[in-house]
Amino acid sequence: MKILVLGSGAREHAIVEALLAEEAAHEITVAPGNAGIAARVETVSLDASNGRIVTQYALDNEIELVVVGPEAPLVAGVADALRAKGVPVFGPDKAAAALEGSKAFAKRIMEQAGVPTGRAIRTTSLDELNAALDELGAPHVVKADGLAAGKGVLVTDDRAAAIAHAEYYLQHGPVLVEEFLSGQEVSLFFLADGHDVVPLSPAQDYKRAHDGDEGPNTGGMGAYSPLPWLTDRWGAEAAFVDEVLDTIALPTVRALEAEGTPFVGLLYCGLIITDEGGPGGGAVRVIEFNARFGDPETQVVLPRLTTPLSQLLLAAATGTLARLPYPSFSDEAAVVVVLASEGYPENPVTGREITGLSEAAEVPGVTILHAGTAHSDGRFIATGGRVLGVVGRGDGFAAAREAAYTALGRIRLDGGQYRHDIAERVVR
Ligand code: AMP
Ligand code: GLY
Description:
By secondary structure, the chain is an alpha+beta fold. The chain has 4 domains: 2-93, Rossmann fold, CATH 3.40.50; 120-178, 2-Layer Sandwich (Dna Ligase, domain 1); 183-323, ATP-grasp fold, B domain (D-amino Acid Aminotransferase, Chain A, domain 1, 2-Layer Sandwich), CATH 3.30.470; 333-427, Glycinamide Ribonucleotide Synthetase, Chain A, domain 4 (Alpha-Beta Complex), CATH 3.90.600. It is 32% helix and 27% strand. The strands form 6 sheets. A 5-stranded parallel sheet has the order 3-2-1-4-5. α3 (51-60) crosses α5 and α6 (94-101) packs across α7. The longest helix has 22 residues, at 237-258. Adenosine monophosphate (AMP) binds at residues 118, 141, 143, 153, 155, 178-181, 185, 207, 217, 270, 287-288.
């Protein structure tokens, strides 16, 4: 199949590796990609958020499937443009991508679909904000309504900080104040074809910059999959996944279908298993929806997928998911640790050389995925906040972690930072 992947991060690199691992040989192009992706498949430099340009490229090159990685092209309507010309695309239209693009829209759909989530109050002025902070109490959860590249959310006990954060984002649009939910977070992805949904395997993301969940929120500093503690609690991963499918994913996709804005692509359910209800209890609630594969969770979910990814994505894009058996996953453990530039997330320092990549790739069970990298004069250069995702796989989490951290120890990037505690909690 001729496949065009849009995006330039480690998530897109992981998608490419999963497609390359299939028995069927595909012709894969990535726009714009990065240095690691360019070492594996063809890359083209085009504006992935311009629907007209992407559609023209797809038609000229007889692309049979477009896979949209990041949210920006979705919110910009790139999938709409492709679909209008009959190009199969994995990724929702602009209207359905509002599930990620507008937190207020997401809350409305959840309410309509009866999906469990925290209370939220939409505010458009400082007076309304103060009233909402009073009503919901501390810790305060303050969220910008629109896309903010992971920076729009602040969770804090400090009321003045909550107000300052809201004051900034209120200049651009509404701000939501949410009920604080405490518990373990789970990312669970569903493929959706507008009507039916099919689950992948759960992962856990580490959102804070520093060890011990300290420091600012980031796009994600690491992840692991599967989640053995879900099995302890639900008896089997499948029981948990079925519950989320029945109470969250399917009702949401059906509510969007009923609104005339069918969701085709990846429904990312950002969940929290609340501590309420005592030991063994705990309700599953939605913290956020995204309209695309998670980054870095995809880097640990796709390596465990044993069903051909292209078949799943094409079936979602063409409305035929119901005809496929559920995807299957290997039992091996996968861990990804993100190497970030000095100063990430606030002010990442870019332009520095990365060395040791080939030595790192020699560690058994390791795959190095590129995020913000470029190749110049035979050297790899860090071009972004998140630079690499180092994936370790193994029989159990001790082996998977050992692989990932051994490889990281061989990579040099001045000022580079990574967390040392990814998946530590699941090593027994
Ligand atoms: P979001 O971008 O909505 O996923 O928020 C980023 C992170 O902030 C989440 O992964 C949580 O760790 C935290 N967060 C968001 N909403 C809440 C909430 N209602 N209660 C507690 N923590 C939250
Ligand atoms: N890892 C969080 C996200 O992809 O939004």
